[in-house]
Structure formats: structure tokens, C-alpha cells
Amino acid sequence: MRQKPHITHERLLELVEYDPATGLFTHRIARNNATKVGAVTGCEHRGAVYLKLDYRKYPAAKLAWFFMNKQWPTRNVLHRDKVRDNNAFTNLYESTAS
User: Fold this and answer.
1) Which domain holds residue 81?
2) Residue 2: inside a domain, yes or no?
3) How far is CA 2 from CA 5, 37, 75, in A?
């Protein structure tokens, strides 16, 4: 099965806003009666936050990295404080090879 390509940076900016101080993502467009502009988005699963964008689920930490750096991370994005739902940009770093 062929994997769908990652979301583009332009599309990410169309769909959500990211606050690097809090690590929260909010909707930029209303999608239906349940989704309002400015509402916080993301679901927690096993301590980490995920966002579903264009029918694909993404880890919020990787989306935050992508949002700020305009490049998809080449390695895992980890949390300095080990709290997986704290996606403040200063708390994120790309893992090393080891």
C-alpha cells in the first residue's frame, strides 16, 4: 500500500495556528458545526497529542516542529521535560542518531 505524502507547510498553515509558547494548535477554518475557528484541536493518546488533518493522523510534536522550521523533521521529535503533551516549541528537540 502506498503511503500518503506528508501535509505541505502551506496546507498546515491553512488549517491550523500553532502557539509556540503554549504548544497548542487551534483551528483556522470551521469544518462543520462541531469545529469552530479558534478552538483548540488535538486528541491525547497514551500521553501524546495527535492531530488529524486531511484524513491523516500526525503527532503534534512533529507538526509543531514543521510549523516553526518549515521542514519536516528527519528524526523523532522529543520533549526535553519528557512530558509528551507539552508541545511548547522550547520543549521540543530533534533526536540524535544514537
Assistant:
1) 9-94
2) no
3) 9, 33, 21
Classify residue 3: in a domain, yes or no: no
pTM of the model: 0.88
Identify the three-state secondary structure at position 36: coil
Cβ atoms of 23 and 40 closer than 8 Å? no
> How far apart are the C-alpha atoms of 35 and 86, rounded to whole Å?
23
Question: Quick check: 48 and 13 in contact, CB under 8 A?
Answer: no
More confident position, 32 or 70 = 70
**Phi, psi at residue 51, to the nearest 5°?**
-120, 140
Residues 97, 83, 73, 19, CA torsion sign: negative
Report the distance separating Cα 97 and Cα 90, nearest Å.
21
